[in-house]
Amino acid sequence: MIKESTPTQASVAEAPAPAKLPRARLFQISFGVGGVMLARVLGIFTQIILARRLGAEQYGLFNSLYALLNPLIILANLGLDNWLLRQSTDRVKLNKSVSRVFALRGFVLAGLLLAAAPFVSMRSPEFTPHLIALACAGIIGDLLVGTADTALRASIQVLKASSLQILVAFSLFVPIWFTPSLPFSTVVIYRCIAVALGFGLSVYYLHGILRWVWQPRQWINTIGEARFYFVSEVMAYLTLRVDLFLVALLLPTINSGIYAPPLAIINNTFLVPSITAQILLPMIVKHPPRSPLYRRVISLAIGLSILYGLAWFALLTWYSDWIINLMYGSQYAAAIPLLQIMAIIPLLKSLNFCWATFMVSNDQQPLRVKLQTIGATISILGNFVVIPLYGLHGVAIINMITEIALFISYGYGAWLTYKKVMR
């Protein structure tokens, strides 16, 4: 772990900004990206193995179960991930906030899941009460592990944060790899075990600062401070993930199995830009926008995002059939045209991460929230209209249109932010 003092605003203003990234920071960025990428790659392979072994019908049930419960995770997140990252400028405040966020999220999510369980059980006879209970337990644990990961990254403890994600991903990958034939209910159990191991490691890593707290008044204050981040996360879910929820809600469960592979491929292309944004935010937020370091990092991120997005656009446009057949098999052939429709999304999303990072690092989260409502509105209304008429093809088209609208909106927001901070 690399320890460093927290600079005050005055010291930052007086000290000359370095022209180059310090070697220690380069190591942190490299290891942070590499470690999380390894965990995500393990997760990608796990989902591919599941899709091939479960088949479209069982895989559809698996995805439908979690798709119906996932909105509750967004509500229980309360926008506290980015809020914690913003506390990274004050280590003492950050340490005090971690326990508060752990307790607050755990109580909120447990209550939401308890209320939603009867509704989920009505969707399919396969969703038995004990299976829903296991899924809910895994979701609660997963959220708390994510909280620990965010706290470690905010403290610039990327070694511990990356090892935490790798442990959870590896613990789920291994039993699935060595179980050739399994129903989707067994996967739910495996997921609970993997999350339990991750939760244990989280407690170990945070044992010096993690405390049991019962502070309802401070919880309310925390929610108030993070309100813009919370609204932003809700808007992001409505923009990017509500499609799978509505597919699981409005169409037969097998449609979730068909739509999940191309959606997973598209979402996995966000891996590099999303991880890079998470790592860069707590680092650049300590520097003024006019500093050479800040401008160098943002410019480099934009340039690499364009190259990265164009490469994915070409690959998904001309080789979608090869990708689907190689990864998932011929039983998912119906997913090929869906992937081709969404091929432009990685390019747009990569640049959107750059615009969002620029806005958030300059305290323009309220502006970002306003812009997100555009994408959320298009996604919700569009999917409600097209799903009954055009099924999965309509969902893919709305997904693409939503991302185009966000690209235009975020670009405008970044331009407004630039004008404000540079004048």
From TrEMBL:
Keyword Zinc-finger: no
A Pfam family annotated for this UniProt entry: Polysacc_synt_3
Subcellular location: Cell membrane
Membrane protein topology class: Multi-pass membrane protein
TM annotation in the entry: 29-49, 61-80, 101-121, 127-146, 158-178, 184-207, 228-251, 263-285, 297-319, 331-348, 369-390, 396-418
Keywords: Cell membrane, Membrane, Transmembrane, Transmembrane helix
Main location as per UniProt: membrane
PANTHER family tied to this protein: O-ANTIGEN TRANSPORTER-RELATED, PST FAMILY PREDICTED COLANIC ACID TRANSPORTER
Entry protein name: Polysaccharide biosynthesis protein C-terminal domain-containing protein
Species this protein is from: Herpetosiphon gulosus
